[in-house]
């Protein structure tokens, strides 16, 4: 540190300004320097553009902006301070900063910081503000670090922070301290700024897979109670944590491909218990590992195969995945294999087309919300609804944890029918995977049961058709093809209870029985 006697302070006036037009902070700092008998001088910024500087020169800016500030910022041997920084140093007997970065205030003096989780632009702005407040910023976590500014706590810099004596802070902390320091004398450790300390699960956006329904509920409560966010789907652009015991399923695969942390739920339990982010090492789930949940009820927990939904047509564009342990659908089953042109009118009548408007009126969005994630894992396509009706159904489906598709795909588990749409039926006919085709009544019953209801009694084809005229002899040519359809069966699926446990239904004879009774209007 240079002797105070050798220091020369230049109080800089922006172009076109006089010292009387300078800020009160500048005038107070100048007066204090006079009282300390320092070498000081008012100078116009433009007069110093080409000045050869030394370490003894200290430039006092009322704002860190302008041509001179930019010019001096690229030089390595220049000391630039703000008036508030100078006032604090002289009043408290502190040395004038000899930092390589400009220091406008001392609001973060004696603090050593690093950050994590932010994009490049946000990080650069963050570092600039820290240094302008006299803080020392490190790219890596070091033993001397006192604070970590983080977007979320799911990273190595935050793990074990409590034992290391490191405080985790939000980005708002830096911004609020900076703004306050421009107006008054503050320090980042003041009590008024402690509200910006990260809560336990700050920034955590978690999902889970291959867990019992009761454990999922427990996890959701713990996460949300500690200021994290739990969601049923995996959104690779936002999700940063997957809780899983067995390394299988689409969610786990997607997490591995997108570097999303996959840990045992025990990590969450221990983190909440200890009140700090536990290191991942002892909890990480890898493709060759699994975590065993010991519980007396575990023997009653049957195996369920995972069914996933994907937002986006191409696997390469996959950004969202939703898995469920409450749904098991056989790829070999069929919704409908053939719809004859001469029977479409009958199908439309049998669909209850005159009823679906009334059923929609009965849908209560508030009741649906009370039912919770009653459609967790269901992948739904809405057929035959106008925009207003679709919006109402969308809100019910989203609130119930279902994934709604905008087009028919092989990932669907359900198609809810309103008005008969022949083109949708054609696509279902061509689909390799056949979902359940149900009426709005199924949705109403699911809300009532607070879980996905059995589809059989709410099948689009459930109602008996009105009597039909005997077919003409010519139509007998088609009878062979029609009879072949009657052998198809509906896929089996687990019955979902309120606790998530399920028992496998036997294969439904819905299509077999219904198509035999309807006989597609061709032959009997």
Protein traits:
alpha/beta, 17 helices, four-stranded parallel sheet, Rossmann fold, 30% helix, 4 domains, 524 residues
Give an overview in words.
- The chain is an alpha/beta fold and 524 residues long.
- It has 4 domains: 89 residues, Rossmann fold, CATH 3.40.50; 85 residues, Rossmann fold (3-Layer(aba) Sandwich), CATH 3.40.50; 106 residues, BRCT domain (Rossmann fold), CATH 3.40.50; 181 residues, Rossmann fold (3-Layer(aba) Sandwich), CATH 3.40.50.10190.
- The strands form 6 sheets. A 4-stranded parallel sheet has the order 2-1-3-4.
- Strand 5, helix 4 and strand 6 form a beta-alpha-beta unit.
- Helix 1 runs parallel beside helix 3.
- The longest helix is centred in the first third of the chain and has 13 residues.
- It is elongated and about 95 Å long.
- It holds the Pfam family PTCB-BRCT.
- This is BRCT domain-containing protein.
- Keywords: Repeat.
Task: Describe the structure in brief.
The protein is an alpha/beta fold and 524 residues long. The chain has helices at residues 24-35, 67-73, 83-92, 120-132, 161-164, 171-181, 213-225, 250-257, 265-274, 344-350, 356-362, 365-370, 387-399, 422-430, 440-449, 479-485, 510-518; strands at 8-13, 39-44, 57-60, 79-81, 112-116, 136-137, 147-150, 167-169, 205-209, 229-230, 233-235, 241-244, 261-263, 307-310, 320-324, 379-383, 403-405, 414-417, 436-439, 494-496, 502-504. The protein has 4 domains: 4-92, Rossmann fold (3-Layer(aba) Sandwich), CATH 3.40.50.10190; 112-196, Rossmann fold; 205-310, Rossmann fold (3-Layer(aba) Sandwich), CATH 3.40.50; 341-521, Rossmann fold (3-Layer(aba) Sandwich), CATH 3.40.50.10190.
């Amino acid at each position: 540190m240079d002797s105070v006697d050798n220091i020369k302070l230049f109080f800089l006036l922006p172009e076109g300004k006089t010292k009387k037009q300078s800020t009160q902070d500048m005038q107070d700092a100048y007066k204090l320097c006079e009282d300390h008998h320092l070498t000081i001088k008012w100078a116009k910024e433009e007069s110093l553009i080409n000045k050869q500087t030394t370490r003894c020169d200290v430039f006092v800016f009322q704002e860190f902006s302008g041509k001179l500030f930019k010019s001096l910022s690229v030089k390595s041997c220049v000391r630039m301070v703000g008036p508030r920084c100078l006032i604090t140093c002289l009043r408290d007997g502190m040395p004038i900063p000899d930092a390589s970065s400009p220091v406008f205030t001392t609001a973060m003096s004696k603090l050593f910081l690093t950050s994590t989780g932010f994009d490049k632009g946000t990080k650069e702005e963050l570092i600039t503000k820290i240094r302008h407040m006299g803080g020392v910023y490190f790219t890596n976590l070091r033993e001397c670090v006192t604070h970590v500014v983080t977007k979320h706590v799911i990273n190595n810099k935050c793990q074990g922070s409590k034992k290391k004596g490191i405080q985790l802070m939000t980005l708002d902390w830096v911004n609020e301290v900076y703004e306050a320091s421009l107006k008054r004398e503050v320090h980042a450790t003041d009590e008024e700024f402690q509200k910006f300390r990260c809560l336990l699960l700050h920034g955590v956006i978690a999902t889970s897979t291959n867990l019992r329904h009761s454990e999922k509920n427990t996890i959701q409560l713990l996460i949300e109670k500690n200021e994290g966010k739990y969601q049923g789907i995996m959104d690779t652009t936002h999700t940063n944590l997957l809780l899983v015991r067995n390394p299988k399923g689409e969610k786990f695969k997607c997490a591995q491909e997108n570097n999303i942390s996959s840990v045992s739920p025990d990590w969450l339990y221990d983190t909440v218990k200890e009140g700090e982010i536990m290191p991942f090492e002892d909890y990480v789930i890898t493709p060759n590992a699994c975590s065993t949940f010991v519980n007396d009820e575990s023997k009653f927990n049957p195996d369920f195969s995972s069914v996933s939904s994907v937002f986006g047509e191409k696997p390469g564009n996959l950004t969202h995945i939703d898995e469920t342990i409450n749904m098991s659908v056989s790829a070999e089953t069929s919704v409908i294999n053939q719809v004859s042109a001469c029977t479409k009118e009958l199908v439309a009548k049998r669909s209850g087309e005159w009823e679906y408007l009334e059923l929609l009126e009965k849908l209560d969005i508030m009741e649906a919300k009370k039912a919770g994630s009653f459609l967790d894992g269901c992948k739904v396509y809405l057929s035959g609804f106008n925009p207003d009706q679709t919006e109402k159904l969308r809100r019910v489906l989203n609130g119930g944890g279902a994934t709604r598709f905008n087009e028919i795909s092989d990932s669907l588990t359900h198609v809810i029918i309103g008005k008969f749409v022949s083109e949708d039926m054609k696509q279902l006919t061509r689909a390799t995977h056949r979902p359940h085709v149900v009426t709005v009544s199924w949705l109403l019953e699911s809300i009532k049961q607070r879980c996905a209801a059995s589809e059989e009694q709410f099948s689009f084809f459930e109602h008996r058709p009105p009597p039909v005229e005997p077919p003409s002899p010519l139509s007998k040519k088609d009878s062979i093809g029609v009879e072949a359809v009657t052998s198809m069966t509906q896929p089996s699926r687990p019955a979902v209870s309120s606790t998530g446990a399920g028992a496998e239904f036997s294969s439904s004879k819905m299509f077999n029985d219904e198509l035999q009774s309807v006989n597609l209007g061709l032959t009997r």
